[in-house]
């Protein structure tokens, strides 16, 4: 059993607390990332509607070259962000799915039943609303999946504003629902937003996957070695006609959640390294070189203590949350309002479909699906989570943003239709966040704080 080391004493770390530590760290990063996303989106909107709007478009369409020798690819900066860097975002999504399937909310059928059913309701209802409003036009019909996505960073950030009003189980449920939502989005992208599949591309991607398995069988533990097969899987997906960002999910799901090559008793080795630090700190020899051995032992013990999936996720998640996602928002949220017209029927149809799907469809689908599942005893609500909390969860599920804009880029090729979809996502996500906050303050009551013990008198 893992132990804390503090003040020279070791005490057992409760299993429940041990499982919650990665979750708390993940939610903290996502909440802070939501702030960064809002700032990036605001900057993009102001920039795209300023006198310097031409520079905004010119920057993202600037060509950028990557390659070695004859293997050279020249694409726009926008492509490398949406199809390249977002692969790392999907890798973190895949790692989180893998971890939740191993020891989290998706570890058992009973645990996964509620978020799966709620997420499916939150996908089907928005898609139905959008399709009902746009089924007559094949160009607009392609955007049916835009309002089905939930942005976990924005949703967690809004949830954090509610403080003690939010039951702890609701945060876990939101994370699980968002993960299922991401899985649905990945399946939708692979099935409905991929061009004709090339056998040669699939063969190349398969070769990359086989290479990953071979590296794992050989006991190669450094993540850097997996960069080459990762690029091969990405290139294979791109050549196959499947969106290359899906390669990130594949690699994330292939990452082991336990390390079979870890040394014996890494915790004891870590404690031994710390004791050696102490002894050398008290000795006369205090040169930096004298600490090389305990530093190496401590680093090796840390590698053995964390499974590969946890190590890679911990290393990449801050970069994705504070770098890649805000950069994606900056490159994609810059909608010029000058060319949008409320008199254009196409604009109004897309805005109505996306807004109706996110603001109405998400809470309606999540709440109804949950109520029916609980009534049929397919699942039960967690302790402290009532029907009001589920309504709040549904409203926050309507915050689409990152994944919704990502799908909009795949669904619409016409710049004006794409601009209308992005505008609708921004407006609907903002409205869903405000609605969620208002309903939460109405339906949820703050949890009682710690009782103060008054000092005895006399």
Can you tell me the CATH architecture of the largest domain? Up-down Bundle
Protein structure class: mainly alpha
**Sequence stretches where pLDDT stays below 50 over 5 or more residues:** 1-19, 451-458
Q: What is the tally of helical segments?
A: 17
| Strand and helix order | EEHHEEHHHHHHHHHHHHHHH
Spatial sequence of strands, sheet with the most strands: 1-2
Q: Provide the β-strand percentage band.
A: under 5%
| Terminal residue distance | 47 Å
Task: Tell me the name of the CATH homologous superfamily of the largest domain.
Answer: Na+/H+ antiporter like domain
Oligomerization: single chain
Rounded to the nearest angstrom, the radius of gyration is: 24 Å
Could you give a short account of the major beta sheet? 2 strands, antiparallel
Shape: globular
- What's the number of structural domains? 2
- The top-level CATH class of the largest domain is Mainly Alpha
Total DSSP E strands? 4
Helix percent band: 55-70%
Mean pLDDT, all residues: 81
According to CATH, what is the topology of the largest domain?
Na+/H+ antiporter like fold
Descriptive report:
The protein is 68% helix and 4% strand. The radius of gyration is 24 Å and the shape is globular. The relative contact order is 0.16. The two termini are 47 Å apart. Residues 1-19 and 451-458 have low confidence and may be disordered. It contains 17 helices and four strands. The chain has two domains: 16-194 and 243-259 and 307-443, Up-down Bundle (Na+/H+ antiporter like fold), CATH 1.20.1530.10; 263-306. Helix 3 (77-103) packs across helix 7 (168-192). The strands form two sheets. Strands 1-2 form a two-stranded antiparallel sheet. A two-stranded antiparallel ribbon has the order 3-4. The protein is mainly alpha-helical and 458 residues long.
